[in-house]
């Protein structure tokens, strides 16, 4: 399938598909005319990429995970689950940091508004 067809079928823009290919997330062959040609399973690969991006994974991690899918969905082989747990732990730590920052900023805002209300 050509890139325009893949874009149409997946709802992902041509430019983004090219980016996925540059990042080593998606593979294509070149026709004799130099056009990209994708395998029949390319729409499933794009769906997997989108799911992993939505989960907050960077493309370097997704590249490592792409060969490890089990079946047609987004389930991965057991050998990479520890890697995913590490990514989840990192997200949890970032969320905790953001929550602390939010609490601090909220306190500053509340104190400032109270002070303005008394003046």
From TrEMBL:
<feature type="domain" description="HTH merR-type">
    <location>
        <begin position="1"/>
        <end position="68"/>
    </location>
</feature>
<dbReference type="InterPro" id="IPR009061">
    <property type="entry name" value="DNA-bd_dom_put_sf"/>
</dbReference>
<dbReference type="Pfam" id="PF13411">
    <property type="entry name" value="MerR_1"/>
</dbReference>
<dbReference type="GO" id="GO:0003700">
    <property type="term" value="F:DNA-binding transcription factor activity"/>
</dbReference>
<dbReference type="InterPro" id="IPR000551">
    <property type="entry name" value="MerR-type_HTH_dom"/>
</dbReference>
<dbReference type="GO" id="GO:0003677">
    <property type="term" value="F:DNA binding"/>
</dbReference>
<protein>
    <submittedName>
        <fullName>MerR family transcriptional regulator</fullName>
    </submittedName>
</protein>
<keyword id="KW-0238">DNA-binding</keyword>
<dbReference type="InterPro" id="IPR047057">
    <property type="entry name" value="MerR_fam"/>
</dbReference>
């Amino acid at each position: 399938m050509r890139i325009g067809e893949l874009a149409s079928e997946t709802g992902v823009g041509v430019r983004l598909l090219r980016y996925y290919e540059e990042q080593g997330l998606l593979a294509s062959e070149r026709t004799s005319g130099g056009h990209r040609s994708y395998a029949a399973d390319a729409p499933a690969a794009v769906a997997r990429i989108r799911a992993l991006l939505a989960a907050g994974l960077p493309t370097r991690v997704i590249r490592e995970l792409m060969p490890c899918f089990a079946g047609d969905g987004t389930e991965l082989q057991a050998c990479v689950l520890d890697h995913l747990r590490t990514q989840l732990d990192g997200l949890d730590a970032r969320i905790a940091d953001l929550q602390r920052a939010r609490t601090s900023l909220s306190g500053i805002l509340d104190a400032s508004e109270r002070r303005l209300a008394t003046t």
